[in-house]
Amino acid sequence: MVKHIIFTASFLISLAVNLLCLNMGIYNIPQHLYYIPILLGVFWYKRTGILLTLFTSCTYIVSVLPYDQDGELILAAVVRSAIFLSISLMVYILNTRNLKNEKILFKNMERLHTILQSIRDGVIVTDVYGNIEIINPKAEAICTVSGINAINKPITEVLNVYSEINEKVILQTPDCQNNTCTIPFSQSGYIIANNGSKKEVEIHIMPVLQADGMQTGNTIIIRDITEKKKDEKEIRFLTYHDKLDRSL
């Protein structure tokens, strides 16, 4: 409803100013006001906007008729109307193309969201400064942090990794700014989550690169290996005692 009012008002104002200027003998400036309803019509009403442009052009030509004496104003109005229609079509094509691209981008974002939801490992994506841009539910569970609270925070505030000798591990992010990547960083250890729980993890950090090789951030894969470590300890324990039993 608001769009209709704004469009109608812009058209009527343009028409009124145009007629006023024609009465005053001003012929070259007022027609530019018609670009406002033309652009609004194409952006808001799509194909219907082209028909509105045609209507606006016809109105403009008819408004000039009473003031034309030698045919020059009519010719100029026809040329101007052709420009109106050309601009309207061009804007419509570009706007339609942008809408299609936005739909494709939205579908890709939905697909990415679905993939991140289904991955069993934790995934965190940061910018080149180490600030979190994306975090999937598994990473949220491992770090016991909500995605809303983690976004835009430095990775060091969310992910604190410690080695087996209880030393804090400094996460080394690959540097590819000069198209020379270092070897992706990998580290195993444990993290202390926000709720105080201790989890054995494997960390893998890989650069996010554009087609031209420019780094835009890093992808951090977090694998919870707590149960795996427990099983390995249990297997070692059973193997050790089995050897003892055989030696007796």
Q: What's the arrangement of secondary structure elements?
A:
Blueprint: H1 2-23, H2 35-45, H3 47-64, H4 72-118, E1 122-127, E2 132-135, H5 137-143, H6 147-150, H7 155-158, E3 161-162, E4 185-192, E5 198-209, E6 215-224, H8 226-247
Antiparallel strand pairs: 1-2, 1-6, 3-4, 4-5, 5-6
Helix pairs in contact: 1-2, 1-3, 2-3, 2-4, 3-4
End-to-end Cα distance, whole Å, is 92 Å
Which of globular, elongated, flat, extended, rod-shaped describes the shape? Answer: rod-shaped
In CATH, the homologous superfamily of the largest domain goes by the name PAS domain
What count of domains describes the coordinates?
2
Q: Please give the CATH class of the largest domain.
A: Alpha Beta
Q: SSE order, as H and E?
A: HHHHEEHHHEEEEH
* Low-pLDDT segments, ≥5 res: none
CA-based gyration radius:
33 Å
- The total beta strand count reads 6
- And the CATH topology of the largest domain? Beta-Lactamase
Mean pLDDT: 79
CATH architecture name of the largest domain? 2-Layer Sandwich
- The strand order across the widest sheet is 2-1-6-5-4-3
Summarize the structure.
The chain has 248 residues and is of the alpha+beta class.
Q: What does this protein look like?
A:
The chain is α+β, with helices and mostly antiparallel strands and 248 residues long. It folds into two domains: 2-96; 116-247, PAS domain (Beta-Lactamase, 2-Layer Sandwich). It is built from eight helices and six strands. The protein has helices at 2-23, 35-45, 47-64, 72-118, 137-143, 147-150, 155-158, 226-247; strands at 122-127, 132-135, 161-162, 185-192, 198-209, 215-224. A six-stranded antiparallel β-sheet has the order 2-1-6-5-4-3. A hairpin with a 5-residue loop joins strand 5 and strand 6 (215-224). It is rod-shaped. The model has no long low-confidence stretch (mean pLDDT 79).
